[in-house]
Amino acid sequence: MRGIWKWVGLAGVAGVVAGGVLVARDQRRRNAYTPEDIRARLHQRVAEAKD
Fold first, then answer.
1. Full-prediction pTM beyond 0.70?
2. Do the domain assignments include residue 48?
């Protein structure tokens, strides 16, 4: 029975680590945009929405 809880704990830790990796990757992607890039993308979305 003890071995089961060990594996459940390890799976939980692996899940938390995987989630942290995904959050860090997303944050890096967001930080890569310059204000001009963001502004251009917003203007493009508005133009597409008006069509």
1. no
2. yes
